[in-house]
Amino acid sequence: MLTFEALHSFAPPSVLPDRTEGGNVGCEHRRPSLFAIWFLVILLSLVAIQPARATPSLDAILAEKPPKLLSEYGFFDDLSAQKPAAGVVPFQLNTPLFSDNAQKLRFVFVPDGKAATYDETEAFAFPVGSALVKTFAFPADYRKPGENVRLIETRVLLRQESGWQAWAYLWNAEQTNASLKIAGAKVDIATVTADGSPLAFTYSVPNKNQCKGCHAFNGSIAPLGPKARNLNGDFAYAGGTKNQLEQWTALKILSGAPAASAAPKAPDWRDASAPLDGRARAWLDVNCAHCHRREGPASNSGLFLTFGETDPVAYGVLKRPVAAGRGSGGREFDIKPGDPDGSILMYRVESTEAGVMMPELGRHIGDPQAVALLRQWIEGLH
Amino acid sequence: MRPSLLRAVCAVFLAGVSTGAVRAADIAVEAGEGAEERLVEALIMAKPGDRVMIGAGRFELTEGLSLDVDDVVVKGAGQDATILSFKGQTGSGEGLLVTSDRVVLEDFAVEDTKGDGVKSKGSDQITFRKLRVEWTNGPDAKNGAYGVYPVSSKNVLIDAVTVKGAADAGIYVGQSENIVVRNSRAEFNVAGIEIENSFKADVYKNTATRNTGGILVFDLPNLPVQGGHDIRVFDNDVIDNDTPNFAPKGNMVAIVPKGMGIMVMANRNVHVFGNRLDGNATAHVLIAAYPNDYEDDKYMFVPRGVFVHGNTYGEGGGAPDGEVGKTISDVSGTPVPDIVWDGVTRIPEYFSWTAAENRVYIDEAEGTSFVNLKMISQLMLPWGWWPDTDIAGYKGSLPEPAPVKLPQDSGA
Question: Which ranges of the sequence are coiled-coil (chain B) (predicted)?
Answer without folding.
Answer: none
